[in-house]
Amino acid sequence: MLTIDCPWCGPRTEQEFTCGGQSHIVRPVDPTAVSDQDWADYLYQRDNPKGLHLERWRHTFGCRQWFNVARDTVSHDIEAVYKMSDAKPELGGES
Amino acid sequence: MEKYSAFSLLKHAFSGHRNWPKAWRSPELKSHYDVVIIGGGGHGLATAYYLAKEHGITNVAVLEKGWIGGGNTGRNTSVSRANYFYPESTRFYDHALQRFETMGHDLNINVMLSQKGIIGLALSRHDMEIFRRWANAIQVQGVDSEILSREQIAEEVPQLNMRADARFPVVGGFIHRRGAISRHDGVAWGYARAADELGVDIIQNCEVTGLELSDGSIRGVKTNQGVVRTGKVAMTVAGHSTVVAAMAGIKLPIVSQCLQAMVSEPVKPCLDKIIMSPKVHCYVSQSDRGELIIGGGADTYPSYGQRGNLPTTEAVLNAVVELFPSFSRLKLMRQWGGIVDIAPDASPIISKTAVTGFYISTGWGTGGYKAIPAGGETLAYTVANDQPHPLVEPFSLDRFTTGRLIDEGAAAGVAH
After folding, report:
1. Which of A1, B42, B229, B285 could make an SS bond with B274 (beta carbons 3.0 to 4.6 A apart)?
2. Mapping DSSP to helix (H, G, I), strand (E, B) and coil, where does residue B139 land?
3. What ipTM was reported for this prediction?
4. A69 to each of A20, A79, B312, how far by Cα in Å?
């Protein structure tokens, strides 16, 4: 069971949250200009690291806000919680 | 290899079953193989077996990090079924189910296949509408499926909560009578024993640490037991497929998540069907030992921790006891988790790759066990001929670029 520290509501249990997968994915500015391969990479390729993962979460049954979490995919330890507009945190073992 | 039979059982009874020969050898890793298979689960062992049996390639090693069948092959709920929605999937899984139906004879091992039939429960009028479409699609593809009324389900499964005030009222459903459970260890051991008999080396406790490439081709495999020269590598790992593929410089559209299963204490026979509900996402069947085998959806975030998280356990069990109130009196005996590779369309990937001689079988999501015979047979064909088996052409890696997905995740909305 995770306790996630929502930037707006404070610590709550994971049942109130939804994981939205890998964060910091940037949509190509002009989709018509990219190749099929690049578009497929944007849509489907994910880092899937064994270790630190930067991911989006939503406080679905709370404030409904999206934010970012840096979490270890083996231990599930949460290393950092930061806002969608924040830069990637400086942590050891960047994903 | 000694043939397993009632006679051999009787013969060994006279010596107290102390003199059974080993089911497979434990050879030293050689320095060269024609094909190296990474991952000694059902898929890897079946691939080795079919390479040797169908294609005459016997200089093959199966490298297993732990022990044979100790990964997801031994962690699943052992369901086989062919009731998929898209023809590509139905063709493939029906082929696998046919192989399961003759596996006991083919491999000379009792896999305890029990074709109890699998019932999907519709818990609303809308579920029922989707089920009619789904069952019809399966029938059109020549696989058995029958719509059942609420009354027929009440007769088939008397323990279901059919009260008027049930939280999840059963409206109807459909049954796939060839749906089965079997003995997953038997499947792993059967393929291991049969492949070993044909000359395949099964190397346990052998972890792959790297792949050697040059000019875009596979040259060798680095392991904790030494380096192996080979021109062909087949990757059949589960959970860590993105980690192993990265050793060949290949990125996969795969996310690893934990899938849980659990069993109750053993009780006398009380449930002779496999029951599943896509709506509340749980499934339950009873093993020959009497335990209720329970599963549900995967945990909802990426994970390599083979544990399973409590909220998912609770959600699955809530659903089961709402559907079967009498099961709430049972104690849970064991709960465990395995890491599954989930592709964006919830369909598998069996494919050649951009690296010559590197073949992959991954993306089995929550349903790799049922695919084992067909997965092994088609991957062996793909490796031997360096071109995809017709059954798995639609499941190649390039479907994510061409956009021709096989979106079973969206079509069925069920545990795969």
Report:
1. B285
2. helix
3. 0.93
4. 10, 8, 20
